[in-house]
Design brief:
80 residues; alpha+beta; Gyrase A, domain 2; 36% helix; globular
């Protein structure tokens, strides 16, 4: 597997991305889109939201590492 493309970076056994929006409403709308994409992929990131900032962490927990599922979902999220 190749390294993730920005805004994703590898941090240990996970892919991390941080997003900044104009306000809480925009951040929440993005999180809802991420939720829909995650449900469709049956693969779910850890999500942290603080007013206008969203942090996503992708890892295949049962494998204990980053897998193709993580790269695929990262790509989908980046296209939102």
């Amino acid at each position: 597997m190749t390294e993730p493309k920005p805004p994703w970076k590898r941090e240990g056994a996970a892919l991390i991305s941080e997003w900044k929006f104009a306000d809480f409403a925009e951040a929440l709308a993005f999180v809802n889109k991420v939720g829909e994409a995650s449900e469709a992929a049956n693969h779910h990131p850890d999500i942290s939201i603080k007013w206008n900032r969203v942090r996503l962490k992708l890892s295949t927990h049962d494998a204990g590492k980053v897998t193709k599922k993580d790269f695929d979902l990262a790509e989908t999220i980046s296209a939102l």
